Amino acid sequence: MELCTSIGLSLVAFVILGYFYVKKKYRYWEEKGFFHMKGTFPLGSLPGLGLTKHVSLGLQDAYKEMKGKDIIGGLYFMTDHSFLALDLDFLRNVLIKDFQYFHDRGVYINERDDPLTGHLFGLPGQKWKVLRAKLSPTFTSGKMKMMHSTIIGVAKEFGDFLEPYAKKSEEIEMKEILARFTTDVIGNCAFGVECNSLKDPNAEFRRVGKKAFSFTPLLMLKAICAQAFPNLARTLRLKMTDDEVTDFFMKLLRDTIDYREKNNVKRNDFLSLLIQLKNTGKLEGDNVDLGKLTFEELAAQTFVFFFAGFETSSATMAFALYELALDQEMQERARKEVKAVLEKHGGEFTYEACGELQYLERIISETLRKYPVVDNLLRITSNDYQIPGDNRIIEKGTQMAVPVYAIHHDPEIWPNPERFDPDRFTEENVKNRHPFAYLPFGEGPRMCIGMRFGLMQTRVGLATILSKYRINVTQKTPIPMAFVAASAFLSPKGGMWLRIEEI
Fold first, then answer.
1. How far is 84 from 164, CA to CA, in rounded Å?
2. Which runs of E-coded beta strand occur in 43-127?
3. Per-residue pLDDT tens for 389-407?
């Protein structure tokens, strides 16, 4: 009896202590003097985030509620305090001027047990700085030009692949087909292998690639726990990457590298550049010693190149085609430009030709404005940070979210933001806009290193389609657009069904 009483009293004490602990956690922003959204146990300020509503839309709601009331807005994710950046000048400070306080993303990595997480996107501090210096030379315009012919080869196969569907004026799920195109591009450029996912949708590379992107409730729970308790997660050897995905990509890379080195095979691709860094620490034709890459570092960078490259570009192309299907006049204008440039360059999408597709470039920019696939950016304060011109302090370890989608849909910055208008990106309009109003690739030293490559394959993919085919909406086209709630990137709910026709 006494034992039961002791246990009961202990449980009551535990509940009471827990209650006051949570109450104190949810008073954090009030005590610091910042405008904020109240938190409710256990999910915090935005309980439906990623469950019933996509993260981008949840953060947009918070942005609308708090903008203009303070320079930042306090939030609670579960019981952790985070904040939204609400002011573009403040963003300029934290992403560039005061970057030393915000150089990390606060992303969970576990290089020991989950080696593919040790990539440039997630690495913190000095590790990131050293690796960025090694990899930056592999993404110059000269290196992109070197890979362009590989992309063109896949694009020709892509154009031929679409022909039977166009002859029958079929409706197709365009996002999946575009993902197969970008899978083949990335497979060639990052891994140096023929993936054949266009010809075979069940090809192993495509199947494992899909698995790498499966955003299950279990994975979401693991990610939340790892973000909240990273040291405990590493102690428990928690992994974010599926074992089959890790084994597949590590074996593929080992076999490919072994074959190339034994047979002295050289290709114009990203893997070739990384192999040079692995073996010599230098790139061919460059005497600068960048430092050697380990195999694990090479594998992680190749994996994130695949991970970040195929989904983002395929989704951007899908959203662009969606808008062009809704506006046939705009689509025809883009097609005329593509055909004129092709004729000028002898019917070939040369690197120079693609650089002349100015209207198509504006369409891509407006697509990334309206549908920023990476819809928010994360940073974490590495030291206490005093807000410029303010005596308030943002404490070390506080996570910041930059609500890119919300900023891109702010009517005070972008009049009539739901209207798709490529002319927002004329040279004059760009000059007249705040430079931090447009952030599809981030900004500052941690800006997306693969931006040039992503834009290049997007440009080639869209130009290939527009040069031969017309895209139209069907009864299955998602009008109005809705997004999958539980998705790492913006993704159309129900797929992107469009009709493809011969011109």
1. 48
2. 72-77, 80-85
3. 888 999 999 999 999 999 9
